[in-house]
Design brief:
single chain, about 80% helix, about 170 residues, mainly alpha
Length: about 170
């Protein structure tokens, strides 16, 4: 890793890492939102296809592996960035008394870890999508993961907007 610092500055490295984390989280957010829309409000036949119908007409099983891979990679990058957050962001937020913001981020950490633990069940339910017995479990687990993902995305943005990155 030290060889990279010969070519780019430390701040540039962390900014690239944060942007990679952000881009992967947007991809994850898009995939899980499409899939959740598909299971929560499936398209109806015979309806004039508009934007909403196309948005929720995705094939849910095709997204399962992508969601799992994106969640894991985003989680790993977030964990790597966490070291910088603990020193350069969290301590000043504590000093400034942003307890609610800090608490929201702590909740984000816990929820994304719970989501990581739920991924094997999620993947199994989607890989066996033809089984009608799994339909309700698959539907609600997908919605729960989508809610966790949206919360994590928004909480991360709030923390970044409160303190900024690398200050």
């Amino acid at each position: 890793m030290d060889f990279l610092l010969d070519y780019i500055s430390v701040n540039t490295f962390w900014t690239i890492l944060l942007m990679g984390h952000a881009l992967l989280s947007v991809a994850l957010l898009g995939a899980i939102t499409h899939q959740a829309a598909a299971v929560f409000a499936p398209t109806r036949t015979g309806v004039n296809p508009g934007f909403v119908s196309h948005f929720r007409s995705v094939s849910g099983p095709r997204y399962a592996t992508a969601v799992c891979v994106l969640w894991i990679i985003t989680f790993i990058l977030g964990g790597w960035i966490y070291a910088k957050y603990r020193i350069y962001v969290r301590i000043p937020m504590e000093q400034e008394g942003f307890w609610k913001t800090q608490g929201a981020f702590e909740l984000k950490e816990h929820l994304t870890t719970i989501g990581l633990g739920l991924l094997p069940f999620y993947w199994h339910l989607w890989k066996n999508a033809r089984h009608a017995a799994f339909e309700q479990a698959r539907k609600w687990l997908t919605v729960v993961l989508a809610v966790i993902c949206w919360y994590a995305f928004l909480a991360g943005h709030v923390v970044n907007n409160v303190r900024g990155f690398g200050l």
